[in-house]
Design a protein that fits this description.
By secondary structure, this protein is α/β, with parallel strands linked by helices. It is 50% helix and 11% strand. The strands form 2 sheets. A 4-stranded parallel beta sheet has the order 2-1-3-4, with helices on both faces. Strands 6-5-7-8 form a 4-stranded parallel beta sheet, with helices on both faces.
Length: 389
């Protein structure tokens, strides 16, 4: 029986974290909000502050956001803004400032409104990562973010501080990659639903060293489950790779339906998944740490990038490494980059990998649950038939 088990809602998790953050702030710590995988966490740690993810992942704040934003906006954009202005999120008021970036039009225009609520730096993300000018521009944006944090938090961030923060993040990413890697086992040590809920909760921390110890404890428990074959509860289930936008505590309805229909999600590529942890920053203390940080974050494979070549290489590799039987690609409603890129993902999965593929477009509400179940049941039947050939 797994000791790590999530019974709280995402709101419960945020409330508990807020209490710990309040105590940390009383002790003199600063809190910096992050809104995407492109936020350089190393800058925040180097400033001696606590990084906290502030993206919305629930339906509740959206009604308030739609008083200002149009309904035909991405649910993540609306949920994030709604949390900030509705008072439903205990974390936003604790953030001293926010690091954001221009990943999409909806987010960057929403940030113009969000900046009225809290000090922000919006990093201008170049979206042609292979261009020679991209790294030059992005490096300048990382330097600007460093200066912003120094001013907002009244600190000096030295190069030594940055290298120490890089080493910390490398430790965390290496450990998370090992945790993701446990799901390669057949059977996996845990259901994908439990795995995603636990790992999404574990992303929140106040004390970094305690956070590392918790990750190590979770990894050790997964290893114990492998050694004792406690993963038999998901034995012989079709193995599914999840790509596109991430599933996490608070927005995991599609993943839950997949596993209710007999599958097990063994790999998550993209937002919140293994490709966000595999890429470490080489530590060469004679080099410029800002350039090293910029190079690493410019390699993040979001659909806002064009061309997003690395994502397709990653998908092909991960499908083989995790021995998957089918692929599900998720887009939130009105997210044009992921919706359009899904066509190419489907080509890769069906034509090159020869696997069943399902593209799902949804939001955070429960209104389409019945329709989704019908589609996913049909997909899982296709997957099971493919395994028998």
């Amino acid at each position: 029986m797994m000791k790590f088990k999530i019974t709280e809602t995402i709101q419960d998790v945020h409330t508990h974290l807020a209490l710990n953050l309040e105590m940390a702030k009383d002790a003199g710590k600063k809190v910096v909000g992050c809104l995407c995988s492109y936020s350089p966490v190393e800058l925040i740690l180097a400033a001696g502050a606590i990084p906290v993810g502030l993206c919305g992942t629930t339906q509740i704040p959206i009604e308030k956001a739609e008083e200002i934003l149009s309904r035909d906006q991405c649910p993540k954009v609306k949920s994030t803004y709604g949390r900030a202005i509705s008072g439903t999120c205990p974390l936003f008021p604790l953030a001293d400032c926010i690091i954001a970036e221009t990943t999409c039009d909806g987010r960057k225009k929403m940030y113009e409104l969000l900046s009225r609520e809290i000090p922000m730096v919006v990093m201008d993300l170049p979206q042609k990562p292979d261009s020679l000018a991209a790294l030059v521009h992005w490096t300048a944006e990382v330097r600007h973010a460093r200066a912003f944090l120094e001013k907002q938090l009244d600190v000096v961030i030295t190069d030594d501080d940055l290298w120490q923060a890089i080493e910390k993040c490398n430790r965390q990413r290496s450990l998370m990659t090992a945790i993701f890697g446990c799901m390669r086992h057949d059977p996996p040590p845990i259901t994908g639903f439990d795995f995603v809920n636990i790992t999404s909760k574990l992303r929140y921390y106040v004390d970094f060293e305690a956070y590392i110890q918790t990750l190590e404890a979770f990894y050790n428990e997964l290893q114990q489950n492998l050694d004792t074959d406690q993963g038999e509860q998901v034995s012989k289930r079709p193995r599914i790779l999840w790509t596109g936008l991430g599933s996490s505590l608070g927005c995991s309805k599609v993943l839950e339906i997949v596993e209710d229909c007999g599958g097990v999600v063994v790999c998550q590529e993209g937002c919140g998944g293994i490709t966000r942890t595999e890429d470490l920053i080489p530590v060469h203390t004679g080099d410029d740490p800002i350039v090293a940080i910029a190079e690493r974050y410019l390699r993040v494979t979001c659909a806002c990038m064009t061309p997003n070549t690395q994502r397709f290489s990653d998908l092909e590799r991960l499908a083989k490494e995790f021995r998957v039987d089918g692929v599900i690609d998720l887009s939130w409603q009105f997210c044009q980059p992921f919706e359009i890129e899904s066509y190419r993902v489907g080509e890769l999965v069906r034509d090159r990998l020869g696997l069943p593929f399902l593209h799902v477009v949804t939001d955070y509400s429960q209104s389409d649950t019945g329709q989704l179940r019908v589609r996913i049941e049909a997909f899982m039947e296709q997957v099971k038939e493919g395994r028998q050939k």
